[in-house]
Structures
1.
Amino acid sequence: MKSTTLAAAFVLLTGSVSAHTIFQKVYVDGVDQGQLVGLRAPDYDGPITDVTSNDIICNGGPDPLTHISDVVIQAPAGGQITAEWHHTLDSAGTNDPADPIDSSHKGPIISYLAQVPDATQSDVTGLKWFKIYEDGLDTSSGQWAVDTLIANEGKVTFNLPSCIPAGQYLLRHEIIALHAASSYPGAQFYMECAQLEITGGGSASPATVSFPGAYQGSDPGITINIYQTLSNYTIPGNEESI
């Protein structure tokens, strides 16, 4: 028990220095859309820790969203999206040991969509989000979604729902790092939003949540000691509704 506690403390101390990450590239059906194209991203690679802040929506604090693309990415309903993360905006392809994210930052990866009149609109408050993807902990192997992300060199792949209406959407793609989450605030939330125009589709009306509001600091998937054998892990937010 003592050695486990010391190991956890060491991870916290070393990992907190080189910790961070930014979602900075989108692929549609395998086609690279370009660095920061269709994305809203800051230069700052650090986390949000307050689940009640508007910064939990699409990031933006403490550094402003200095890269706000005027491009809306075209993607078909049912199409494949790949999100690519890196430690900083210039760490891809380098020998940065914390790229795409420090290996201590274990946790889930989640994606949400919100339909909007204009995907380039500046105001992201009051939107209704529905979850389209989640990956947490494989309790049989002990592998977290972040471990898979690192093995895939920063890439996470999932599909857009085929049944949602055509139109413009924001894609909120998020990592929750739990290495310091034994008390709140401790979990680290990394997210950026991509701007999509989804074509085709259907007429589904999935259940939605709001940000802030979807997460509480007391949620078992947000305040948790991961330095133990976990028989289960509850991913925060609503269930996938598509």
2.
Amino acid sequence: MAQIFISLGSNIDKEKNLLSGLQTLIKYFPTYQHSTVFESEAVGFAGNNFYNSVFAAQTEMSLEAVCRLLKVIEYDHGRRCNEKKFSPRSLDLDILFYDHIICSSPAQLPRDEITKNAFVLQPLAELAADFIHPIENKSIRQLWQEYHNPTQKLWKVEFPKL
């Protein structure tokens, strides 16, 4: 079984899309953990605030199969393959870790945003404080404690528990 961590984000009909995306992930990964949902300003472009969280599970699916599944779920929630990198999102699902694999294909692992964005690192630290980042060789807790970017602010959001 592989340990996976997936970030969820949305800034288009964000509560509805994040909840629906989460419910869909649970169908495939029924034994899971889900972080607090945070609201943050858009990073890299002017746009509506985002809801973000992290989902953790174990799976027997291959990395390639998980990546394909995440794309299907995004497309089922209105995402299109030609969208710009920094643009509004109905649902954005990114695999952050698949065990301790380091690779660039079929996804960049570990995901670069982990160490750059509070909206990924803080919810990840809730679920995986002792997980060791295979490139940084530090725990997620330590990365969060060392993180400093005062321009990225997060607010906890009341969100339905599943």
3.
Amino acid sequence: MALMCRNVKNSIRLFRAASVTFRHKSEEKLPHYIEHSTGLERKELLARAAGNDDPFGMNVLKRGAGTKDQPNLIPSFEEKRIIGCICEEDSTYINWMWVHKEEPKRCSCGHWFKLVEAKPL
């Protein structure tokens, strides 16, 4: 038992004798939050830093005239996109529909929508 206690004391003494170097507080610096980000989050942060407030095209778009000759243009990265049309201002539902490239689509309220090419991130 005495031998075991002596080994524990020696190991504690060795542990206490180990020196740890600390950097001065003035040398410590947290990296910028963009340096920590990766993947889509990084692309989004870089796009926002460049001035693009809607890098993924998720903001609500206001409808224009919406005629067959001048449809509402919807930016898209893909060949098709689902959109929602609030047909009346005080409507309590959204009319969802798929819009395909080069095929203008007419909503039940009479407005026309057309996909246009959007520049991906």
